[in-house]
Amino acid sequence: MENMIHSTPSHTFLPDCFVFPPDQVPPATSAVVSLPIIDMSRSRDEVINHGISEQTMQDMVAVGEEFFRLPAGDKLDLYSEDINKATRLFSGTTYETGGERYWRDCLRFAYDFPVGNSTKDWPDKPQRLREVVENFTLLTRGLAMELLRLLCEGMGLPLDYFEGELSGGYVTLDINQYPPCPNPSVTLGLPPHCDKDLMAILLPGQVPGLEVAYKGDWIKVEPVPYAFVINFGQQLEVVTNGMLKSIEHRVMTNSALARTSVAMFIAPTEDCLIGPAEEFLSKENPPCYRALRFRDFKRIYNVVKLGSSVNLRTNLRNIQKEI
């Protein structure tokens, strides 16, 4: 628990373990981008009119912030550096590789959909945390599945293509806390990466920090009130044989304001074999990715640098020796 960043009221200097060489923290361009907005009231990137109430979104952020304000003793039993533990509190994550540390605290939940048995391991403080998190998780998962059905309709896949094993793994929900940082220019909240799952639904909060890679630059994302940011995961890129790209993104810190974000991830089951769908293959368009079971993909995700779309395409052609 001594590693928790948010537990210290103020930080006057940045420990060396959080400092990166300048080439690993290139500044973003001065441009601020508004992501394309999807208005789901008309179809029923950023999604508005999605059917999840503003109150539900406010409650989710509020209960997360309330948790991080709890006394250290109320959080002690949750703290763990075991990356295989489903529900845990951790800090300065090493991102499962290397020794770098990032300016982020995270409370992570796992939800066994549709059974929900995993909630017994969830913290019981604050009092309404379990109810708020479970409600938010179920609603955002429903939104993700609706978006996947719309993608299927647009791409010519069966509408239920992503039902079952492709989306049947544990739903993971992260409440991220990025405390004020004494020197944001030399550190990161999260490193450049692509999400390894199928899809992520992000409630980014109103304090800027999210940046996306675009044409060799980093672009700051302008928050839109009560809008979700949708991140396509690498499994969606594999299934579509590269038609839909998993966008590389990172999180920067802020010297004056704390930032709270909430991310929900849809993942395949561990045994799910994932490769390009036949609908995207032809003689002129051969498979760009090798089929892998999701557990094997996760195991080698960092070992062979699958964290970006370019490395994903390069390495999944010749990865059998790593399994």
From TrEMBL:
Similarity annotation: Belongs to the iron/ascorbate-dependent oxidoreductase family.
Domain (Fe2OG dioxygenase) ranges: 168-268
Listed PANTHER family: OXOGLUTARATE/IRON-DEPENDENT DIOXYGENASE (PTHR47991)
Database matches in PROSITE patterns: FE2OG_OXY
Gene Ontology molecular functions: dioxygenase activity; metal ion binding
Protein name: 2'-deoxymugineic-acid 2'-dioxygenase
Keywords: Dioxygenase, Iron, Metal-binding, Oxidoreductase
